[in-house]
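Q: Convert this sequence to structure tokens.
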Amino acid sequence: MKNVFDVHEGSVHFASSDIGWVVGHSFIVYGPLIRCANAIFFEGKPVTPNAGVIWRVCEQYKVTSLYMAPTGVRVIKKEDYEGEYVKKFDVSSVRTVCLVGERCDPDTIHWVHRHLPNVLINDTWWQTETGWPISANLLNLADFNTVFPTLPGSVTRAVPGYEVKIFDEGNHPVEAGQLGKVVIKLPLPPAFMLTLWGNDQAFIDKYLHETPGYYTTGDAGMIDSRGYLHIMTRMDDVINTAGHRISTGRLEEVVNEHESVVESAVIGYDDSLKGECPLAFVILKGSAGADSLTQ
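A:
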């Protein structure tokens, strides 16, 4: 709570997740209590009754740290791309915006930066199985007087306790910048799941069998030349086009760079010649028409 979410005694932590999700009990209930901080319980959509509801809560309760899923941010961004609702509320108390739950595309990071220029954005990556962040920016370290620069599209670096590697299909480490399956060297730190309820063998088969000595995350990604970790997509979402393994997440990045696009989802469809070809489903800004995509 201190070193990832910037939560301290007296802080107001607003995790807008569903209470039944893993974030619900860990970072809405237990975490703030352990830090002697305040937690906000929120039920509803981030655009009901309008795209300003999250910012209204931030103003009303003087929120200091905001924790959201990228989808939640993108829903708000679609309804209020120019940030008119953000301007209606005093959100100056917010110091940190943390993201979790799925890959966050760079355009969404840029949108948050544009409308909340004074906050630190901490895009985190973890799984229900691990119980807490695998990779994130680390804050408030006494012997480390700065944080890593935010790199849109990256979840920064693995935190202490996790040794993350990128393997190819033969379980060999790949070069920097090359896409592969994301694995974590055993043993894993405290809070990691110990088994599947009543089925130890299924736990071994699902998480440990494919990459002996490593936990198989099921995610695909890369580590760049600076050591930054990029989680691109799930392994079963990597498509094979004419012999090239392509990340659907990277394709979505490119599509989302179009000025009329708010969000996209890329999938593969069968092609008799190339094996698979990408198909993009696109959500446009409220005022944009489909003809804008041909420009």
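The first strand starts at residue 12 and ends at 15.
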